[in-house]
Automatic annotation (TrEMBL):
Origin organism lineage: Bacteria, Pseudomonadati, Pseudomonadota, Alphaproteobacteria, Hyphomicrobiales
Lyase among keywords: yes
UniProt record, GO biological process: fatty acid beta-oxidation
Stored PANTHER family: ENOYL-COA HYDRATASE, MITOCHONDRIAL, ENOYL-COA HYDRATASE-RELATED
Keyword Lyase: yes
Family label: Belongs to the enoyl-CoA hydratase/isomerase family.
UniProt-recorded Gene Ontology molecular function terms: lyase activity
Highest taxon of the lineage: Bacteria
Protein name: Enoyl-CoA hydratase
Amino acid sequence: MAGYRVKLTREGRVAILSLARPDALNAIDRAMCDAIVSVLDRLEEDGDCSVLMIAGEGRAFCAGADLKHMRALAGESLRRFIERTWIVGERIERSPLLSIAAVQGFALGGGAELALACDMRLCESTAMFGFPEMTLGSVPGSGAMQRLHRLVGPARALELVVEGKRMDGNRAGEIGLVNRVVGHGEAFDAALAWARDLSERPSEAIRYAKTCMRLPADGAVAPMVQGMVSSICQSGAGYRANAGQFLSGKDSR
């Protein structure tokens, strides 16, 4: 698939997308971007999957953009590549699929941005996150600054970007960059167990929840939309059946 930049496996309603350039610490190039978008297109069209787990083969989740690839680009071709990495993040974030990043080893630059584009993140305590672009004279270009702002607040987000320092998985958990932290070597299995559990939730309700989460929290539209989608979900047969079982003391989960 796109020069085997990624691999796709299925576990019931869970799709596992593995970044498959372990010799390059899963660095991102144009072929990998295209492969990720192609996988998303396919999974969304199939409709048999509700949770997407993204992991990296080898000793890193993703060490960022492939600098060798970027050095070979210039002008418009470089701009298009950076734009493509941004599109990948947007496609993951806006996908109806619930996404979980399973992070081990390095998640730097574009790799950290890829993890941030996912709805949830699980990492090993020994994982290493960082946004080194500023030390190279640039800034994150794939949506990290906006996502960091939402996750950890404006002051801390700016600190992470401007200082460009690395942090381990424990620190990432402390500041809210990741949802869960596990021991060394446990990320894949722990994330898969989590994904399997979440895949039992109704796909339609997941999609509505993701849509509502993207609405401005302080706007007048958000409460109305949330009320509307809640009504839609609760009028469905699935909700009524589950609610009936819950009330009778027989939870379906």
